[in-house]
Amino acid sequence: MYNLFNLKRSIMWSSKISRTSFTTLDIYRRITRGVTNLAKTRQTSTSDIHLFKVGGKYHGFEAKRIESIPELKTTALYLLHEKTKAQYLHLYRNDSNNVFSVNLRTTPMNSTGLPHILEHTVLCGSEIFPVRDPFFKMLNRSLATFMNALTGPDYTMYPFSTLNYTDYLNLQKVYLDAVFRPQLKELDFMQEGWRLENVDPNDINSDIIIKGIVYNEMKGVFASNDSILGQKLQNLILPSHTYGVISGGDPQEIPNLTWNDLKNFHKQHYHPSNSRLYSYGNFPLLPSLEYIDKEYLNKYAYSPPTHTVVPKEKRWEAPKREHIKCRYDVLGAPFEKQNTISISVLASDTTDAYQTLVVDFLTNLLIKGPNSPFYESMIEPNISGGFTASTGFDSQPRDAMVTIGLQFVKKEDFDKVISIFEQTVDKVIEKGFEPHHIESVLHSYEISLAHEGSNYGLGLLFGISTAWNHTESIIEHLQSKKLIDRLKNDIKANPKFLQDNVRKIFKDNKHKLILTMSADKEFDAELAKAENQLIKKKTKGLSSKDKKVIYEKALELQKQQMEPTRTELLPTLFIDDISSDVEKVDMEKVSLNNIPTQINKVNSNGVVYFKALLNTNYLSPDQQMLLPLFCFTINKLGTDKLNYKEFDSLINRKTGGLSLNSHIGESLYSLHTYQPSLLLSSYALERNVESMWDIWNQLFTMRGLKDVDRFKMLVELYMSNLSNGITDSGHVYAMQAASSLVSGTAYQVELLSGLQHISYMKSLVSTSNYKAILKEILNIAEILFDKKKMRVALNLAPDNQRDIIRTYENFIATLPQATATHLQSDDTFVVGDVWSPTEAVNCQHHVLNLPVNYCSKAVLTVPFTHADYAKLKILSRLLSSKYLHPELREKQGAYGGGARVMSDGVFTFYSYRDPRNLDTLDVFDNSYNWIRSEIDKITPQDIFEAKLGVFQSVDTPIPQSSKGNEEFLKGLTTDIKQRYRAELLSVGKNDLTEVAEKYLGPGNMLQTGKVVLGPKTEQMDVSKRKDEMWTVVESNL
């Protein structure tokens, strides 16, 4: 996977619909969820950290440093391999979700995608495990909570995490062998990287084109204008070394890469002396050190990795300005506003932990929220669509940078933005920052240390990897409290400390890049022309013999892809490794001041987590459509007591933020049935819990807001970000759209968060009647902010439960309530409408100017509690691994694809960054025939592996903040989960054929919807497709 943006960059809040059955399906993305433990897979702490002493020798490693880091509840152990000088960092923490990673400094000097294609190819088989695609095969032989590989600008990393010690050792063996002893076969290089191949591999006379997984992936990556800008920014501001090229690969340059280049790059960069090994958790370390030394490191001699060292960029003597072109986004702002400007400066050396913190802190002060200087000067005047995705502090390169960028601006405003930037910097240097604003940013650091989010050990790895890539002194980067205390002391000792640093970094710094970008309606046509020219160049002068070689290589690759894989060579878990019991949450359900309240008693680390569901069934259909906009704007308008700046300051000084989201809770028992709600959530340190209640009280009781200009600015910010996620998550949009054709529940989700929502909002905003829209938003607030419509979940530490509950009851007593409504109960469900055709399958082609497609097929099946649901769940996993992955990724070159069944009863197929469209739909349709023809070849081990794959998600570790969520949001009680668990474990071969026949067979054809998101091409000729009724949706939304 290519990772362009900073591993450490925080995700900005957004107002999105939450759907209880749905999580983003991109299994190739980098974070799954979870910290904590699970029943049988839980490992009691067997850590041997107490055996290590500084200076001690352990299986070829010497312990160089041991440091306790109390704020992380961690002990850091830094070791150095004596023979190869490989670095090893182990972070002991009493957390059973253990992590391991091999990191390498990879510094390409061209844009052929060398490290990225190598990352893919090393995972295609190794010396001990000569299995085709062992990485994906292990996804079904493991209970890993995370498995991936990532390529960055100057690093490649191979991380995984799991709660099971046997699983940990299995995955460690597979990863180490893949990294240090890969096969690197030519056919795998052709499959993963690029190749010339006939359009029809079985017809030597068909046209020759370029195929390859990474080739198509990078075409998809650069379908995003954010990626175009971010990549070009990095290349231009750091031009002299490895950052001046595209490590992921430029599609125009990838076909210049040779197999020998790949093998040589591995030899040079995948040496232990150039590696950094990482582990985290409570598993024993000594056995791993012994295995790593004996089987791998001890077999190498030291090789100084001087050739991978990244020098500091020579600083410029004067700022530079560049202009580039990008894709016209048919879903975005008006064409005249599809322009972007970014102003970037090189700031600090990433290896300097303290200076990195200082620059990060300054950046947050400058851009975070309406009290920040750049927000006030650049966002409030409403001259743009808000900050760009690249805005912020980027510590991924050796020389970290800060970028301030605006999207959707007029070209004639470029110089105005530059002038505003300079004036803002001057004003900050002169006047400094408001004390409350400094306090709020400091508080965000403090609460982030206390809040334990997803996969904690993985988060620590991502947080330090970019700095560790260039220094051995990495423990300092983990000592957050020491660094923050030093910052506080420096601010106290020198009142001008922050202004002096602003002057140094933003005023006197000559290494400044002004990069502007404008949409070009011919951009896609020019890309297509360039690709055609590249193909002509590659095929020009090919003799009949050359063409025969290309044809035969394609057949050879096809033969390899069709051969059965020797998965028995790979390690695996066994049925006993799957717990038969679900993890139970210490939960209490009570009624407090007549509000149904679920109290989840957890190890919250001094944080109180609040969630509330408000029944939205009282809203009119038009108000329901406005709910996502309501969620985005309502907490940014101020209250009757505080203006929006004061309110934002209070939120950030006292909480981790307020979140409001539309929420659709599917019925576990009936199709097309759902519970529509508004989900509120926030968290605060225990000392600030009463302030958190006061903040929500102010929001519930506000009535007199009339700032139409502020509201208009927020609406335009909302609109500017509506379509930004399509290129990265197009498969999600495709699945939502396809599901909406068969399910009333999914249709409601589509209305509130899919392509239909974008269309509705663009139509609404075109009226420009912001005063009327604001009035309706406030009407929604008056209807919904009623405690009689509310039920609550609290996650808190039992030690302080009594005091916290007392403050909560006082808070509830102050909330408004209407007299004409009823208490919300668990059975306030709505039956949605759904249209089912009587003669043909309902199909849609959403025409988007993208270089790749996102395809989906949706089939209506059964609700979650139906006996067939567990069988369909196992079937979806089996189809994904045994059929769809080989067909879509290996043969067609799509970056990803698979099948899922959702708890609303929709069975969905999907493809991601796919060069095909109708061919992919045919692959989906053929799933039924594949099951019928292959069922006799399906072994008990195949079915067990499908179960393991399902249990990876079922048993995903849950952070303390989210314990009890499944019951609160979905109604999934322990009894229901226990029954579902037993049903999954009992699924057999006959069950799979039964549900395939019942739901995927021709008898259920009319309960199907199909969607393609992608360009209008000759491939999309639907005129000859039988039993399908197509609607073409031109994206002039």
UniProtKB/TrEMBL annotation:
Domain of life: Eukaryota
Species for this entry: Diabrotica balteata (Banded cucumber beetle)
Name of the protein in question: Presequence protease, mitochondrial
GO molecular function: metal ion binding; metalloendopeptidase activity
UniProt entry keywords in alphabetical sequence: Hydrolase, Metal-binding, Metalloprotease, Mitochondrion, Protease, Transit peptide, Zinc
Cofactor: Zn(2+)
Domain Peptidase M16C associated: 517-764
UniProt record, GO biological process: protein processing
SMART domains in alphabetical order: M16C_associated (SM01264)
Entry GO terms, CC: mitochondrial matrix
Entry's transmembrane regions: none
Localisation per UniProt entry: Mitochondrion
Family: Belongs to the peptidase M16 family. PreP subfamily.
InterPro entries registered for this protein in UniProt: Metalloenz_LuxS/M16, Peptidase_M16_C, Peptidase_M16C_assoc, PreP_C
Family annotation (SUPFAM superfamilies): LuxS/MPP-like metallohydrolase
